[in-house]
């Protein structure tokens, strides 16, 4: 898998809407904050396994940290997420398969950064990992989510490390959203199947 990454846009504080003291009883120049989103609660308890590659841990761990914060906002507490670490992304699928077969987890999330060794090698590794994770999902019927990324260009520099750390924060939030939404969808679907609706 080949992923092109672009620098995320950063909004300046001057773009934040301001409220005058005469409006809504706020103090002058108080930023208007949107209300916290309300996420649906689960009918049954959920348990998630988060499998992280240790290669480039300082970058990949940003995904885990952001995931844990976002998934908690979506009513899966940190105590309901078990964390696992493997040497590299290539080792994630087998770990995910063994975890899925335990039937303890309602979802598995994988995170890793595949770089180095030339364009064909790291693309091959990433494609292999993604395909294997899909196979685990289809064989076990436990949803598997991937935040395994393969940038076209990655250099061992402070600039690249900083950029990808920020990018993995975004990916952590996105994978938590996908995980929670899918678990809600599967919960509804299983209820419909049990009721004979579908």
Automatic annotation (TrEMBL):
Reactions mediated catalytically: (2S)-2-hydroxy-3-oxobutyl phosphate + 5-amino-6-(D-ribitylamino)uracil = 6,7-dimethyl-8-(1-D-ribityl)lumazine + phosphate + 2 H2O + H(+)
Family statement drawn from the similarity comment of this UniProt entry: Belongs to the DMRL synthase family.
Keyword flag Transmembrane: no
Protein name in UniProt: 6,7-dimethyl-8-ribityllumazine synthase
Coiled coil: none
Gene coding for it: ribH
Root EC class: transferase
Keywords assigned: Riboflavin biosynthesis, Transferase
Binding of 5-amino-6-(D-ribitylamino)uracil, residues: 55, 89-91, 113-115, 146
EC numbers on record: 2.5.1.78
Organism from which the protein derives: Bradyrhizobium lablabi
Protein origin, superkingdom: Bacteria
InterPro entries to which the protein is assigned, alphabetical: LS (IPR034964), LS/RS (IPR002180), LS/RS_sf (IPR036467)
Any single Gene Ontology cellular-component annotation: riboflavin synthase complex
Pathway info: Cofactor biosynthesis; riboflavin biosynthesis; riboflavin from 2-hydroxy-3-oxobutyl phosphate and 5-amino-6-(D-ribitylamino)uracil: step 1/2
Function of the molecule: Catalyzes the formation of 6,7-dimethyl-8-ribityllumazine by condensation of 5-amino-6-(D-ribitylamino)uracil with 3,4-dihydroxy-2-butanone 4-phosphate. This is the penultimate step in the biosynthesis of riboflavin.
